[in-house]
Amino acid sequence: MNRYNRHIILSEIGSEGQYKLNNAKVLVIGAGGLGCPVLQYLAAAGIGTLGIIDFDIVSESNLQRQILFGDSSLGINKAIAAKKRLEDLNTSISIHAYPENLNHKNSVSLFKEYDIIVDGTDNFKTRYLVSDACIITKKPLVYAGIYKFEGQVSVFNYKNGPSYRCLFPNPPREEEIPNCSEIGVLGVLPGIIGSLQANEVIKIILNLGKILSGKVLYYNSLNHQSNLIKVSRSEKEIQKVIDLAGIFENLDEGIRCKVKNNNITLKEALTKKNIQWIDVRNDTDQIINYPEIIQIPFEYLEQNLHKIDKNKEQVVFCHAGIMSKKAVTILQKHQIEDSFSLKNGAFEVMDYFKNK
Amino acid sequence: MMITIRYFGLLAEVTGCTSEKINFSGTTIFDVKEVLFQKYKTLKNKDFQVAQNNELNTDKTKITSTEIALLPPFAGG
């Protein structure tokens, strides 16, 4: 145990603490800028079982910050290259490399095999997937994200604390926030932020100090400003994810089906309860004047989203079902997901309301 | 009253500053956002949360402090 001597002589850790580290199982999602320092410190600390999942291969532009890799790793899968480096760093731990994509299908069964999940991904789609799978499997999530010279860190799902969705309920409307490969990042920044993540992992295992739960840390490496922002648990947001548990593994396909099905007939529309009808025709000479219908001309739709009652299912119509289709795409982009385009357009709606 | 608004991540690029003081006469977080949307047209297309006195708030929260922060999610890793 000479390897861990500097841990063991700390009264806060001791042999007992080191034993806990040696028996812990930690899964790191993404072996990139954040994943590399996390993995390096966790392997050195003697975390007994480390999982690494990454589908990507090492490229030259990664070497400026992804410190587990060198020229000899170029072209090799990141999970495999990281495992090779870490096995040299510490031969006494077991390391599992998963050179594949994380998706709704494989995440739940994979997460169940570990105690703590670390998010080192680089896009919102995977971040929400990781967060949701952690809620479903009840695993603490050590989260971080970076932007140029700034980072944010938090621990989610820890002892009934908040989740990522309590902080940011929905993914951004567009992937408008570019990632490091598009805008650049200071190489040392993920080193700082990833080290904070590794520190939280070790604190959770050792039950040491104050865990960064219920708070998100914003850190700016240019001016050393750091802000701890309090985040409360939102039962509503967490319950929404738990409700998906039964169908979670099929969710990728589910989302695709939903997009296909939002072009509907009047008959299908009328099977829905609590409908809000939206007339998006630009010419207003034929207004159908009923309290259930609101008029928002297509060209003003995005400016008038606040007029839409999001608790209702939206049935959008125009003259012939073309503009309404585009309108539904816009609504869904703004998280108004239960919106449908009426295939046959306004004349059917007019008929229906007249004979109602 | 004068309130200080702090911008993080790409929001500082939208506004051209990391913090500023504005003269504010409304009552809620929603009102603060409206003022800022008027001032910075493209801010409306960005996703962020608002904190007051280092605590996350909703649109309906009343303004009781002079320290407001606009917090975007970071995707990078």
Please describe what this structure looks like:
The complex is a heterodimer of chains A (356) and B (77). Chain A is an alpha/beta fold and 356 residues long. Chain A contains 14 helices and 13 strands. Chain A folds into two domains: 2-251, NAD(P)-binding Rossmann-like Domain (Rossmann fold, 3-Layer(aba) Sandwich), CATH 3.40.50; 261-354, Rhodanese-like domain (Oxidized Rhodanese, domain 1). The radius of gyration of chain A is 25 Å and the shape is elongated. Helices cover 35% and strands 18% of the residues of chain A. The termini of chain A are far apart. Chain B has a single domain (2-71), classed as Roll (Ubiquitin-like (UB roll)), CATH 3.10.20. Helix content of chain B is 21%, strand content 30%. Chain B is built from two helices and five strands. Chain B has helices at 11-15, 29-39, and strands at 2-7, 19-23, 49-52, 55-57, 67-71. In chain B, strand 3 and strand 4 form a beta hairpin. The interface between A and B is medium-sized, with 42 and 21 residues.
Residue share in helix of chain B = 10-25%
Structure classification of chain A: alpha/beta
Secondary structure tally: strands of chain B:
5
Spans of chain B of at least 5 consecutive residues whose pLDDT stays below 50 are none
Mean pLDDT of chain A: 91
Q: State the secondary-structure class of chain B.
A: alpha+beta
Low-confidence stretches of chain A: 254-260
Can you say what the CATH homologous superfamily of chain B is?
Beta-grasp domain
> Can you list the strand order of the major beta sheet of chain B?
2-1-5-3-4
Helix coverage percent of chain A: 25-40%
Terminal Cα separation of chain A, in Å? Answer: 81 Å
Tally of helical segments of chain A? 14
Count of domains of chain A: 2
Order of helices and strands of chain B: EHEHEEE
